[in-house]
């Protein structure tokens, strides 16, 4: 029985040591958050620095986390560092935000090494961020003697637990129940590219050329490039642009790359930039639809369904006749 008791005690000590090591990092209580929704960020501080009490905690706010409001703590003074965001984000009730809190610091308290405490932020995860991405909140923990920077970010496929001072990480997820019902609008929670009101004109017979129009918005945090498209009912789908010189003569050129900066919208329209549907394999009839894909450098293939309809005027309306 004595041997069994010692073995049990030894196993318990190993288990306790393992749990202590795993919980020694500063971590977020909730490690997932939905894009386009509020998020309560609770940071747990489990110990001081080499036995010394914690006297200051600073948290850097990653891009796309907006509307930040810290929770006051008795005995601590709050300091907020504000600045511009990389882009403008949609917020509650149609409001937008282009700047806000970039760093929050609690100063002047004293958290003994023997105690645990939490530091809380009320935030909003911008809907322009992509589900599947991960955000990191670097934390600086200052103690009576020295400080620790919890700022290491794991490389791709690297286990964050292998890092000595990992930054607290937050995984972003989409809202599967939220769907955009606006007619003619293509928006995916997993894709930052939004396509609004895609349409094309009727084409009487197969073998003809059509043109596609729509508004394209890059809701992502990084720039992307439109490189063309494809469709099962056309031999080629290309991006073209109509230009009119000083003499009023129109010409057409193919665009192999159209950059969309973060937050930028471009409009494909008659007498301007547009899609060319070359070598149609079937007629396009009024009231029907044409399925296609747009190809982006970062976002990849984005499905789009163009409504076939006659526009209200012919100004610039027959790009394919100018080829």
Protein architecture, described:
By secondary structure, the chain is mainly beta. It has 2 domains: 148 residues, Uncharacterised protein YcnI-like PF07987, DUF1775 (Immunoglobulin-like, Sandwich), CATH 2.60.40; 138 residues, PCu(A)C copper chaperone (Immunoglobulin-like, Sandwich), CATH 2.60.40. It is 7% helix and 50% strand. Strands 13, 14, 15, 16, 17, 18, 19, 20, 21, 22 and 23 form an 11-stranded mixed sheet that branches. Strands 6-7-4-10-11 form a 5-stranded antiparallel sheet, with no helix packed on it. Strand 13 and strand 14 form a beta hairpin. The longest helix has 21 residues. 28% of the residues are buried. About 10% of the residues have low confidence.
């Amino acid at each position: 029985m004595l041997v069994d008791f010692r073995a049990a005690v030894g196993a318990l000590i190993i288990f306790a040591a393992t749990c202590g090591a795993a919980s020694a990092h500063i971590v977020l209580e909730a490690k997932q958050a939905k894009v386009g929704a509020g998020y309560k960020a609770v940071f747990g501080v489990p110990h001081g620095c080499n036995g010394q009490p914690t006297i200051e905690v600073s948290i850097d706010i990653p891009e796309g986390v907006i509307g930040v409001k810290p929770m006051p703590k008795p005995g601590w003074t709050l300091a907020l560092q504000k600045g511009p965001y990389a882009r403008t984000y949609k917020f509650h009730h149609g409001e937008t935000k282009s700047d806000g809190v970039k760093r929050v610091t609690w100063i002047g308290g004293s958290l003994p090494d023997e105690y645990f405490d939490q530091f809380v932020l009320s935030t909003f995860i911008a809907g322009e961020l992509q589900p599947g991405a991960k955000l990191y909140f670097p934390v600086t923990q200052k103690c009576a003697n020295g400080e620790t920077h919890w700022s290491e970010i794991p490389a791709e496929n690297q286990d964050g637990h292998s890092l000595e001072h990992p930054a607290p990480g937050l995984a972003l997820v989409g809202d599967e129940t939220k769907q955009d019902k606006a007619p003619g609008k293509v928006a995916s929670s997993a894709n930052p590219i939004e396509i609004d009101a895609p349409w094309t004109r009727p084409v009487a017979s197969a073998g003809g050329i059509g043109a596609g129009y729509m508004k394209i918005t890059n809701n992502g945090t990084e720039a992307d490039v439109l490189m063309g498209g494809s469709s099962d009912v056309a031999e080629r789908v290309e991006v073209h642009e109509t230009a009119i010189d000083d003499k009023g003569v129109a010409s057409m050129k193919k665009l192999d790359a159209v950059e969309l900066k973060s937050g930028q919208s471009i409009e494909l329209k008659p007498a301007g930039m547009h899609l060319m549907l070359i070598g149609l394999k079937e007629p396009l009839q009024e009231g029907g639809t044409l399925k296609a894909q747009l190809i982006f450098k970062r976002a990849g293939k984005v499905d789009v369904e163009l409504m076939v309809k006659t526009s209200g005027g012919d100004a610039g309306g027959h790009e394919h006749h100018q080829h």
